[in-house]
# Entry
Amino acid sequence: MIPGHHHSKLKHAKIIRFSAAKSLAEVTCQILNSATSLECLTLDTTGLPTCSASKTGYCRFVLKGELVQAQKGVEAAQIYIKPKVPSTVEFNLLEPCSRCHAVGL
# Structure
């Protein structure tokens, strides 16, 4: 916790390309602890637009390494972040489209 840094007026937070990096998880937890008016936290593990399979049949091409990192980010968010999210905060975890981007780790 950084003294004097409170996010008391923060209502919505979105982290794009959330990964399994320890420092990113720590910053996210700090936001959860200090943002007393937080209403919604969104962690986007890909940084990609939502699935466009309904229009074209496929999502945008993504390298396998990016998909692996996104999946690790999903797992880290579920283990380290989700349990710390207060019930008053809407939690959204955006992950790769399982239909278009199946990855075996």
Q: What stands out?
A: The longest strand covers residues 12-16. The longest helix spans residues 64-81. The beta strands are 12-16, 40-44, 90-94. The chain has a mean pLDDT of 82.
